[in-house]
Predict the 3D structure of the following.
Amino acid sequence: MPRWYSLLVPLGLWLVIINLSMPLPKSYPDSPAPGLVLQAVQKLDRESLTGIQYVIIVEGSSVTWNGFDGERVQRVLLQHGIPALVIQLSFAGANHAERYEYLKEFVEALRPDQLDALRRVKLILCREVELGYDKNPLNNFLRNGSTGRSLRYLDPPNLPMIFSWLALKYRPINWIREHTLLTNIAGCELFNLFHVGYVPRMEALTAPAKTEPFVPNLTQSSGFAPRGSLDSVQDSALDKRLTSTFVENLAWQKKRDQDFRDVFRGLIKAEYYFAFPTWSKQNADYNVWKRRQPGNERFFYGDGTPLMDELNSPCLWYDQLHLQQPGAELYSEEFGKYLVEQIQSKSL
C-alpha cells in the first residue's frame, strides 16, 4: 500500500472537523444573504406576532426586487382587516440555489420562540415565476463566478441538492456540453471544502448591514420601446414546440419546490406563485403556460384584474421585464387585493 494512503484517514477527519466547526456561509459577507436575513429577522422582532394570522414569505430575483413592494402588500391586507406580516427575501440576479440559501439562513436564524409563534399562524410561501431562472437552476452562476456570493450558496451541504437539480435538468449527453459549469462548480466546492482563506475572512468580518428586499427602478432603460399592447404580447394558443422546451424543466422544478418546502420544516400552510406581466413574448407565453399547469390554481399573473390595462403604459416600465416604481406600486396593490380575495373566499 502506498505511504500516502495512510494520510487519507487523518485528512478525512480533519475535513469533517473543520466543516462542522467552521460554518462557511458566514465567512462570505459579499452576498445579499446576511443583510436580507437580518432585515427579515428584525421585522419579526419588531412586529410582534401576537394577533398576526398570516405570515407571507416572498422570494424572488430582480423582477421581484424591483417590482414587488412587500410593505405595500402588507398595508393592503391590514386595510381589509387581515392581520398579516410580509417578509421579503429577493435580490437582483438571485438564482434558485441562491434563493434557497436565503430561505435556509432565514429559518436557521429564527429563535425557538419565533418558530413556535410561526407554527400558530398561517405561513404562506410566495414563489416567483420567471422563465430565465426557471429554465436554469444556476442561472448567473458563470457570470458571478467564484465570488463570495456564489461560494456562499455552494456550501458543501447544499451540493447534493444542487446536483440533483442538475441531474434532472440535463440529459447525460448534455453533461459533456456543460463541462464549463461543472468544472467551475468543482473548483468552488474544493475551495469551500478545504476552507481556503476562511480564517482571514473571519478576522476581517464586520457586522452585516441590512439589505433592502425591494429597490424600485426610478428611470427607464435606454432603447426600451415596446410595440402593441401588453396583453397582446402572449399568444392565446401556445406554440407546441415552445411549450415542449418548458416541459423539459418540470422534473427539476418539482424537486426544487420540495426542497424549498423542506427548508421550513413543515411550517408552510400554503404556497402561491406569482409572475409579472411582461413585454417579452417568450416570457409571457411561459407565464400563461405555467399558470395552466395542474396544481397551479394559486397563481397570480394579473389577468382577470385591471392590472394588464394599468401596466399597459411603457412609462411604467424599466425594460421589458422590470417595472419602475409606479408600476411596482400598481402590481403590489393588485397582488394584495388578490390575497384578500383568497382569504375572504376561504381559499386560504
